[in-house]
Design brief:
Distance between the termini: 61 Å
Largest sheet: 3 strands, antiparallel
Mean pLDDT: 85
CATH topology of one domain: Alpha-Beta Plaits
Order of helices and strands: HEHEEHEE
Strand order of the largest sheet: 2-3-5
CATH class of one domain: Alpha Beta
Strand content: 15-25%
Low-confidence stretches: 128-133
Structural class: alpha+beta
Helix content: 10-25%
Number of helices: 3
Number of strands: 5
Shape: elongated
Length: about 130
């Protein structure tokens, strides 16, 4: 009675011991990610209407968006920053964007050396630790 679980566990281990390896050799071989995986963000300034819905939808208040009124009474985007150190990569900002100005890419290598480099300014393209600079 007490050895049943142990024997069952050992049988599963023995079946998988001689099977095909499923581990990916990450730095040398890039993983095949599904198309809907959430990685870094692609931002199109031309499509953005500065409505601020993405900043309101973010649960961690990662997005900082500033705008000003132009000559034709339309909003002009002056600042779009994301503090990726606190981002959950939930995709709520992408879903709520009415013009598809914000999209997700499969680039997931966002490591950096300093905390200041986790703040990414999409209009000035600053952010030392990111490969999208």
């Amino acid at each position: 009675m007490y050895g049943k679980g142990l024997l069952k566990g050992l049988s599963i281990t023995m079946k998988n011991l001689f099977g095909k390896a499923i581990t990916q050799q990450y730095p040398e071989v890039k993983p095949n990610l599904p198309p809907r995986s959430h990685g870094f963000f692609n931002f199109s300034m031309d499509k953005c209407i500065a409505c601020g819905l993405c900043a309101k939808a973010c649960p961690n208040e990662v997005i900082e968006l500033n705008s000003e009124k132009g000559e034709d009474k339309k909003k002009i985007l002056t600042e779009f920053k994301m503090e990726l150190g606190y981002c959950l990569f939930c995709g709520l900002c992408i879903e709520v964007c009415p013009t598809d100005a914000l999209n997700s890419s499969t680039d997931f290598e966002l490591s950096c050396f300093t905390r200041d480099a986790t703040v990414y300014d999409f209009l000035n393209k600053s952010g030392e630790g990111h490969s999208k600079v």
